[in-house]
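Quick one, tokens below. Sequence please?
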């Protein structure tokens, strides 16, 4: 990509937002030879004051490959990653259930539970290892046209110019608003309560999710065999109650809601709650600004896919930029459209799948209830359909960027 001899030259890319998606994109673009400035106004890793972070993520093998390609996976504290090989999902209102086993796809694991602070520290190491990368603290407040690019005005009064701006500034993306990109929005009358809990029975490295009438309740395995990360999507009033409730009351209610599948819940961390929203940008780019990660799409966390999808966005954008070469950045419209063509359908499929699943399981229509339970049981007895679902959930299917593709020794579908 373009050499950048003079300080007056615009950067090839300004990546705005150094969350997991923005930090990964910045590394990938630097590796593709681009001059990159990474802008964020927030200090990255919070101090850990409990045995495990309250923010944990289920990452797919595809995300692992992307993070490995930038040297971040290798920097993770490996003792704090939990690989899980099985998944059990069941319907609380009927008896339908489905089980997934990584071995059915010829894999040792389905995914990994990783704490946010572990990810942030690893990414920070990967960013600092790239000496060509410019880090600029500050919040972007305004965009101004500039010769051969766009100038970003930061709250600090500083300005940064780049040919392409990658907006990785999250679900409430200010940049998306600044360039006038509208979103399609759907609401869930739900919030997610997150907590880490100790259970009487060991989790056995299996991720479990029970679909209740008010929303799904997931127990995800942590490194200690008796600790799980809980994500309980539920009515807003119930979420407020669960967060404010005393620990004993919460443990009791949680164990009952989970049918005592892992026995009693013996202790809990404090609880946090997050609003759940569905958003999809009507276009992924305007002018020289391109949306990546949550800035382009927000989805229900029931399938644990938001960050995984964002990492695939980052890898595809970096691949498109690398293939197009430096000249493409002078007039980047074609490059940004290519990115959107490759991502939009894939993202929409995941957005629709998670939205429909969420609505299907909260519907109280008896016919739908029968259908979803029968559907779960039937799918459970159809290994090819299960393998297909699993390969999507593992990020192994679809139009994958080169660095995210599964190894050739994987079992073909
Ligand atoms: C309860 C819950 C559970 C989830 N579990 C999973 C899971 O298991 N697996 C999964 O894949 N996904 C999961 N997700 C989704 C996941 O959290 C998001 O998809 C992911 O964090 C998005 O990352 P991002 O980098 O795009 O955005 P963010 O993490 O929101 O980062 C945005 C960054 O932009 C910066 N920023 C914002 N505005 C500006 C500005 N004006 N100027 C400069 N910088 C700015 C912010 O400081 C921040 O650092 C879950 C979500 C929820 C709510």
């Amino acid at each position: 990509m373009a050499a950048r001899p003079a300080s007056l030259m615009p950067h090839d890319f300004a990546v705005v937002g150094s969350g997991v998606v923005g930090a990964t994109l910045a590394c990938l673009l630097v590796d593709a030879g681009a001059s990159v400035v990474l802008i964020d106004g927030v200090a990255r890793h919070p101090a850990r004051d409990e045995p495990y972070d309250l923010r944990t993520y289920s990452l797919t093998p595809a995300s692992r490959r992307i993070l490995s390609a930038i040297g971040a996976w290798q920097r993770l504290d490996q003792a704090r990653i939990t690989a899980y090989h099985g998944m059990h999902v069941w319907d609380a209102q009927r008896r339908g259930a489905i089980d997934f086993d990584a071995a059915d796809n010829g894999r040792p694991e389905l995914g990994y539970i990783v704490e946010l602070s572990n990810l942030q520290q690893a990414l920070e190491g990967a960013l600092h290892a790239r000496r060509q990368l410019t880090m600029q603290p500050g919040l972007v407040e305004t965009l101004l046209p500039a010769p051969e690019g766009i100038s970003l005005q930061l709250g600090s009064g500083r300005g940064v110019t780049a040919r392409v701006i990658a907006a990785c500034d999250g679900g409430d993306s200010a940049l998306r608003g600044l360039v006038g990109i509208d979103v399609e929005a759907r609401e869930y009358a739900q919030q997610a309560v997150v907590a880490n809990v100790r259970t009487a029975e060991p989790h056995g490295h299996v991720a479990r999710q029970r679909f209740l009438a008010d929303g799904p309740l997931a127990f995800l395995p942590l490194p200690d065999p008796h600790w799980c990360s809980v994500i309980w999507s539920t009515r807003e009033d119930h979420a407020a109650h669960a967060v404010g409730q005393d620990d004993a009351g919460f443990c009791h209610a949680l164990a009952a809601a989970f049918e005592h599948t892992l026995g009693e819940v013996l202790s809990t961390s404090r609880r946090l709650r997050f609003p759940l929203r569905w958003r999809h940008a009507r276009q992924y780019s305007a002018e020289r600004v391109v949306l990546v990660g949550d800035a382009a799409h927000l989805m229900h966390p029931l399938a644990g896919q938001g960050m995984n999808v964002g990492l695939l966005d980052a890898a595809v954008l970096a691949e498109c930029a690398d293939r197009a070469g430096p000249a493409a950045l002078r007039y980047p419209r074609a490059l940004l459209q290519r990115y959107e063509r490759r991502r939009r359908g894939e993202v929409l499929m995941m957005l629709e799948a998670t939205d429909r699943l969420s609505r299907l399981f909260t519907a109280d229509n008896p016919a739908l209830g029968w259908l979803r339970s029968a559907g779960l049981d039937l799918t459970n007895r159809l290994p090819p359909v299960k393998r297909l679902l699993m390969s999507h959930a593992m990020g192994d299917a679809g139009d994958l960027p080169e660095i995210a593709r599964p190894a050739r020794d994987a079992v073909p579908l």
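The pocket of flavin-adenine dinucleotide is lined by residues 16-22, 39-42, 57-58, 139-140, 168-170, 174, 192, 194, 231, 274, 293-294, 301, 304-308, 310 (CB under 6 Å). Confidence is low (pLDDT under 50) at residues 1-7, 408-413.
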